[in-house]
C-alpha cells in the first residue's frame, strides 16, 4: 500500500502530508497485524517460532499457516503438516522442539484488509486531534464490521 493509493482513497491533494500519511499507514498495519494486533493474525507473510516442551499435538498461536518445520531437542529436523482442526492450526511432534512456521492472510481476504487500512488511515487523517489507535468509535461502521469479519477467534 502506497501513500499515493491512500491519498486517492481519502481524496487528499498535494504532498505536504505525505510523511504523516506514511506514518498512519504503518500505524494502521501495526494496529491490525500479528500477535498484538486486533486481528490476531498475520496480514503479510511472517515467520514465527515457538517452543513446545513435550511430544504430542500442539496448537499454533496463529491461523493461516502456510509452512511449518521443527528442530527437535536432539537436533533432528522435520517438515510438519499443520492441520486445521477445531480451535486452530495444529502440529504433531514426536518429541520436544522448536516449531518454526509461516503464516499470512489468505489472498482472497487481502482486498478486504486493504480496504480496512484505507478506511482507518482516512479516519485517523481526518480526525488527528481526537482519534487514537484504540478509539475507532467514531469511524464508519464498516471499519468495525470489517475488523469483525477478519478477526481470528479460537473456538
Your description of this structure?
α2 packs across α3 (110-126). A hairpin with a 2-residue loop joins β5 and β6. The chain is built from 4 helices and 7 strands; from the N terminus they run ααβββββββαα. The chain is elongated. The chain is α+β, with helices and mostly antiparallel strands.
The radius of gyration is 19 Å
Largest sheet: 4 strands, antiparallel
Task: Classify the helix fraction into a percent range.
Answer: 25-40%
As residue ranges, the low-confidence spans are none
Question: Structural class from helices and strands?
Answer: alpha+beta
- The fraction of residues in strands falls at 25-35%
Following the backbone from N to C, one meets helices and strands in this order, namely HHEEEEEEEHH
Strand order of the largest sheet: 1-7-3-4
Shape: elongated
**Distance between the ends:** 32 Å
- The whole-number mean of residue pLDDT values reads 89
Number of distinct beta strands: 7
Count of DSSP H/I helices:
4
